[in-house]
TrEMBL record:
Binding sites annotated in the UniProt record for Mg(2+): 110
GO aspect biological process, one term: DNA replication, Okazaki fragment processing
Cofactor note: Binds 2 Mg(2+) per subunit. Only one magnesium ion has a direct interaction with the protein, the other interactions are indirect.
5'-3' exonuclease domain boundaries: 4-255
Metal-binding is among the record's keywords: yes
Family assignment from sequence similarity: Belongs to the Xni family.
Region (Interaction with DNA): 190-195
EC number(s) reported in the record: 3.1.-.-
Keyword Magnesium set for record: yes
Residues given in the record as K(+) binding sites: 177-178, 188, 191
Pfam families: 5_3_exonuc, 5_3_exonuc_N
Cofactor(s) in the UniProt record: Mg(2+); K(+)
The name this protein goes by in its record: Flap endonuclease Xni
Length: 263
C-alpha cells in the first residue's frame, strides 16, 4: 500500500479568516491572491499526495443540527457580500493551482470532512485537516491530525487535554454538558467547562454522569431534568461520518499546475 497524505482544507474556515485580514474595501482579487499564497504555504508545509478544499453550501438552511437544536447557529454573522460573490473566483483559482473543491449539498462541510478523514484513516493512511475548528479534535487518532494554520500549531492530544481536560473520545459528551457558545449550543445550564471535565473524569460519559448515585447534591440539582437536553447537545456536537461523497481518492490526487507552483 502506497503512503498517502490527504490534506483536507476546511475552506470557509480558511477563506473567511484570510478575507478578514485584508484591508477593508479591497477588491475580491486581493482575497483571491491572499488565499492562493496561503494555499501555497499549506502545501509546502504538508506535502500532500492528495488534497481537497471542502466548502459549505450557501443556502439559508442550517441543516439537521438546527432541527435537533433550534438555537444552533441562529445568530451567526452572515458572510460579507463581497466574499460570497467572490467564492467562484476563489474556487477557480484553487482549481488552477491543482486543488479541487467539494461543495456540500445540505450537509455541513464539517460532516463531509469527517467522513472523508475517517475513510482515509480506515485505510491506515495519513490525513491532515486544516482548520481552526476544535470540533474536529473528536476525530484525533494516530493517522488523523488537525492543523491550525493561523496559529501554526497542531490541535493534538496535548492541546485537547490542556484546552478541555478530557480525552478526544469524550469531547462530544463534554460539549453536551458544557455547550459550545460559538455555535449557540447551550449544554446544561449551570455546568461550565471545569465542572464538565471533572464529571467526565469521574464518570466518563453523559449517561454515566446522569446515572451516578454518588454525585454531589449541587450537581444533581443542576443536572436534574436536563438529560434530554444534554443528549441533544451531544448529538449536535458529533460529526457525521457516513455522508455520501461521490468521488474517490484518485480524483483528488495533487498534481500541481505549473503556474500555481510559481505563485
Amino acid at each position: 500500500m502506497s503512503n498517502l497524505h490527504v490534506v483536507i482544507i476546511d475552506a470557509m474556515n480558511l477563506i473567511r479568516r484570510v478575507h478578514a485580514a485584508q484591508p477593508e474595501g479591497d477588491a475580491i482579487d486581493t482575497t483571491v491572491n491572499a488565499c492562493i499564497k496561503t494555499l501555497n504555504k499549506i502545501i509546502n508545509h504538508s506535502q500532500p499526495s492528495h488534497i481537497i478544499a471542502v466548502f459549505d453550501h450557501m443556502g439559508s438552511d442550517r441543516g439537521w443540527r438546527a432541527e435537533i437544536l433550534p438555537a444552533y447557529k441562529q445568530h451567526r454573522k452572515p458572510m460579507p457580500a463581497v466574499l460570497e460573490q467572490g467564492l467562484d473566483a476563489i474556487q477557480d483559482a484553487f482549481w488552477q493551482y491543482g486543488v479541487d473543491s467539494l461543495l456540500s449539498q445540505g450537509d455541513e462541510a464539517d460532516d463531509m470532512i469527517a467522513t472523508l478523514a475517517l475513510k482515509v484513516a480506515e485505510r491506515q493512511q495519513d490525513v491532515t485537516i486544516v482548520s481552526t475548528d476544535k470540533g474536529y479534535c473528536q476525530l484525533l487518532q494516530p493517522t488523523v491530525r488537525i492543523r491550525d494554520y493561523f496559529q501554526q500549531r497542531w490541535l493534538d492530544l496535548a492541546f485537547v487535554q490542556a484546552q478541555f481536560g478530557v480525552r478526544p473520545e469524550q469531547l462530544c459528551d463534554f460539549w453536551g454538558l458544557a455547550g459550545i457558545s460559538s455555535s449557540e449550543v447551550s449544554g446544561v445550564p449551570g455546568i461550565g467547562p471545569k465542572t464538565a471535565a471533572s464529571l467526565l473524569s469521574d464518570y466518563a460519559t453523559i449517561d454515566a454522569v446522569f446515572a451516578a448515585e454518588d454525585l454531589a447534591p449541587k450537581w444533581q440539582k443542576k443536572l436534574n431534568g436536563h438529560y434530554e437536553l444534554a443528549q441533544r447537545c451531544k448529538q449536535v456536537a458529533q460529526l457525521k461520518t457516513d455522508i455520501p461523497l461521490g468521488f474517490n481518492l484518485q480524483d483528488i490526487r495533487f498534481e500541481p499546475a505549473t503556474e500555481g507552483q510559481s505563485s
